[in-house]
Specification:
167 residues; Immunoglobulin-like; five-stranded mixed β-sheet; 9 strands; elongated
């Protein structure tokens, strides 16, 4: 009886570990500078997951670099603060599985009570990876007329994909 219980326990533990690895993660990286272009060391950079409220905070390096690795996928707000500069907030950041998104920040001089909020920004670029990839969201799946619900047709809506006839 004890061996069966241990086996079940081992099975459940391995399934939970595998489930944890299936959850996608992404990263935010970047450089924090002042208006003259000089690096801003020891600025506080915080990524806030909007659905869960999860916060990940890091300090910038001497070179002004920051890295927020292993973030769960989803919608984020990025906040950067440093004494003597206006608080920087960027909203509308969407991270998908395996994204490494580079967001460089220029802090404006001023009181910390003032906030610069960026909400309509250029699309996020991945400068760390040389491949082309995309995310097909649920709305695009629902709106796309699929012939016979063939999932391979979803690939054709991504840039750089060429569908060939099977032999």
């Amino acid at each position: 009886m004890r061996k069966v219980n241990r086996r079940w326990l081992l099975l459940v533990a391995s399934l939970l570990a595998a489930a944890g690895q299936c959850v996608g993660q992404a990263s935010l990286v970047g450089l924090v500078r002042d208006p003259s272009g000089a690096a801003v060391p020891e600025a506080t950079v915080t990524a806030i997951h909007l659905q869960t409220g999860l916060r990940q905070t890091r300090q910038t390096s001497v070179e002004g670099l920051y890295s927020l690795p292993a973030l769960p996928v989803g919608q984020y707000r990025l906040e950067v603060e440093k004494t003597g500069f206006q608080r920087y907030v960027r909203e509308g950041i969407t991270l998908a599985v395996n994204d490494i998104v580079n967001i460089d920040v220029v802090l404006k001089l001023g009181a910390t009570a003032e906030t610069v909020t960026v909400s309509a920004a250029a699309p996020l670029l991945e400068t760390q990876v040389g491949g082309i990839r995309g995310l097909v969201d649920q709305q695009r799946i629902v709106d796309l007329p699929l012939n016979g619900r063939n999932i391979t047709q979803l690939m054709s809506i991504q840039a750089g994909v060429i569908l060939r006839a099977s032999s």
